[in-house]
Amino acid sequence: MTKAKVAQKSPYKVAVQEGKKYAWCACGLSANQPFCDGTHKITEIRPVIYTASKSGDLYFCGCKQTGGAPLCDGTHNTL
């Protein structure tokens, strides 16, 4: 598998905490969307580590096609 599976055609709203690291699922196979659960090990795709610069709500990409990984850039609107 070299292309990510679309997990959903909308972003995941997540309340993040400043300084905390998040492992965003880039393959689309995780059962713990939008975060990695290790399922990527059967693919060539690896998770993206994101460290929150401040606390608040962010929108993590659900379609896995964003140009601004791991955050949503609206690409899901073109799928």
Describe the structure.
With 79 residues, the chain is an all-beta fold. The protein has one domain (12-67). Helix content is 0%, strand content 23%. The protein contains no helices and four strands. The chain has strands at residues 12-16, 21-24, 48-51, 56-60. A two-stranded antiparallel ribbon has the order 1-4. Strands 2-3 form a two-stranded antiparallel sheet. It is globular and about 35 Å long. It starts with 11 loop residues before the first strand and ends in a 19-residue tail after the last strand. The mean pLDDT is 96.
When the domains are counted, the total is: 1
Name the average pLDDT: 96
Structural class category = mainly beta
The dominant shape is: globular
Provide the gyration radius in Å: 12 Å
What are the secondary-structure elements, in order, as H or E?
EEEE
The count of β-strands is 4
Q: How would you characterize the largest beta sheet?
A: 2 strands, antiparallel
Q: Calculate the terminal CA-CA distance, rounded to whole Å.
A: 19 Å
User: Strand arrangement, largest sheet?
Assistant: 1-4
Sequence stretches where pLDDT stays below 50 over 5 or more residues: none
Summed up, the helix count is 0
Which percent bin holds the helix content? Answer: under 10%
Strand content of the residues, in percent?
15-25%
